[in-house]
Amino acid sequence: MPKVLNRKFTNNFGSVTKLRIEFERLKSHLIKTQSPIVFAHNDLLLGNVIYNKDAGTISFIDYEYASYNYQAFDIANHFNEFVGLSIGDIDYNKYPSKDFQVSWIKEYLTEYLSATPTPHDVEKVYTEVQHHSLASHFLWGIWSLVQYELSDIDFDFGRYAVIRLNRYYELKNKVFKEIL
Fold it and tell me: What distance in Å separates the CA atoms of residue 68 and residue 35, rounded to the nearest whole number?
């Protein structure tokens, strides 16, 4: 990492050791949410969701990050992707409202459970999603640091890492209150 980014990054986020400690805190909290483990896409940005209006079907593409993960992570990551990916185009005002998320989660659970979910079920998953949204920001922040060092793609991964980790820290206290 060039010294300028390294200094700026360290001033904002601390050392790798501090990030590891933060990760362990996050992990220990997320385990408590009891979100089920499912086969997850893990990269459901809108470009990876293909809607065929004529057939009334939805398909997913680009499974390179797919694996088992918390159900709430996959949903949270999908919602986080609504704000955009291009550094100049990230707009947190595009993050879906609670009403939108609750409606979406209700539809998701209806398919997942093959039954109409209770309001309690929907609210439980909504709460889990809010917590796992932090994991999404943290993951893509760290992923961007790795890409910054390794990728030949013309993208400012260093800046993107700062954006995602800043969002993680902005939301952490709101979501976890005094737990972390």
Answer: 12
Q: Which amino acid is at 79?
A: F
Give the span between the Cα atoms of 143 and 70, in whole angstroms.
18
126-154 pLDDT per residue, tens: 999 999 999 999 999 999 989 988 999 99
Sequence-distant (≥ 6) Cβ neighbours of residue 9 within 8 angstroms: 1, 145, 158, 161, 162
CA distance 121 to 112: 12
Q: Dig out the tokens for 168 from the structure.
A: 């993680």
- Strand runs (DSSP E) across the chain, as ranges? 37-40, 49-52, 57-60, 67-70
Q: Assess contact for 66 and 41: CB atoms under 8 A.
A: yes
Domain ranges (residues) in the chain? 3-176
The CATH code of domain 3-176 reads 3.90.1200.10
The tokens describing 59, both together, are: 């398909």
pTM over 0.90: no
Task: Report strand pairing: 57-60 vs 67-70.
Answer: unpaired
